[in-house]
Specification:
By secondary structure, this protein is an all-alpha fold. The chain is built from 16 helices and no strands. The longest helix has 23 residues. The two termini are about 20 Å apart. About 20% of the residues are buried. The N terminus is likely disordered.
């Protein structure tokens, strides 16, 4: 027996049994046809509008294209002043480097899982495998931390004053083995040996490019290249890809909040963005359980506009 027309269930169109026509439906046939048609479209459109296959940026290409930037970055790695050296978890224990939300230090929750010693991993370690740099490596290794910092800071300042940052035009000074170390590292990078040396630090069969990417990111060349390709953060780079816009559109929700100056310019911008997206995602998951939100379709019946033919023919009598 059906519910009285005056009841909520009786007046709810969606709860009524279907009384219209029916027909056989072959799900497997539709799946096969759909896969074939979509597959053909993907192949055709990828040939016509596919993304360009740009060559990967390597330490070798960086050293060849911007040797002065490579030298300056290598000096910063030795001095412990680069972004990688001062990032904090998960790479190192740099004090006051983490992004926090009040007293909550989310960045430190995972601990240092990918330890990175910038001077050792990016410069001294690779050069230790090069006989020509043995004397410079020995001089650096025998000095104490204060002396090393003094050498690197002095050379970094001299490079900043030199025309175009050219190491060949640096004024004389007390730089210790830093000029020899960075020059040897530049030669190693130009030959292509540095890419393999840094990657092999995690094993001869390692495919982990984390340290190489961190080293690249510490310099200006990599960031300038990203800006020219419209891939920087203020260009919605998190969702762009080379030659295509907008690229990974599903990431717009993250990128959107970085464009808000109050959030994007904050020292803990990453924490704020992740927190906002997390709260919004949680609200979306809990929509069926939150009074008010779950009844929005009844208050704003957009679905009736989409399915207007159905509702006009099946309106309650």
């Amino acid at each position: 027996m059906s519910a009285p027309m005056g009841s909520r269930r009786g007046s709810d169109l969606a709860s009524r049994p279907w009384a219209g026509r029916t027909r056989r439906y072959d799900l497997f046939k539709e799946l096969a046809v759909g896969t074939a048609v979509v597959g053909a479209l993907v192949l055709v459109l990828s040939f016509a509008f596919g993304s360009p296959d740009d060559r990967a940026i390597t330490l070798q290409s960086w050293a060849q294209a911007a040797p002065a930037d490579f030298i300056a970055t290598s000096t910063a790695e030795l001095g412990g002043t680069s972004d990688s050296a001062t990032y904090g978890p998960p790479y190192n224990h740099t004090k006051d480097a983490t992004q926090t939300f009040g007293p909550i230090d989310l960045q430190s929750f995972s601990g240092v899982r990918l330890p990175v010693d910038a001077a050792r991993d990016f410069v001294i370690g690779p050069l230790s495998t090069t006989p020509s740099a043995r004397a410079a490596v020995a001089a650096w290794s025998s000095a104490d931390a204060a002396q090393r910092s003094s050498w690197a800071a002095a050379y970094a300042a001299a490079l900043a004053k030199a025309p175009s940052g050219d190491p060949a035009r640096v004024a004389a000074g007390s730089y210790g083995p830093v000029p020899a170390l960075t020059a040897s590292l530049l030669g190693m990078a130009k030959s292509g040996a540095l890419d393999g040396a840094i990657r092999n630090e995690r094993g001869s069969t390692s495919l982990d490019a984390t340290r190489t990417t961190l080293f690249l990111g510490d310099g200006a060349y990599f960031n300038d290249l990203a800006s020219r390709l419209h891939l920087s953060g203020d260009q919605w780079g998190v969702m762009n890809e080379t030659g295509n816009y907008p690229g990974q559109a599903w990431l717009w929700l993250f990128s959107l909040w970085y464009q808000v100056p109050l959030i994007g310019n904050a020292a803990n911008a990453d924490v704020l963005v992740i927190g906002i997206v997390g709260v919004l995602s949680l609200l979306l998951l809990l929509v069926p359980f939150i009074p008010g939100l779950r009844t929005l379709p009844r208050w704003i019946p957009l679905h009736r506009l989409v399915w207007r033919d159905y509702y006009s023919k099946r309106a309650p009598r």
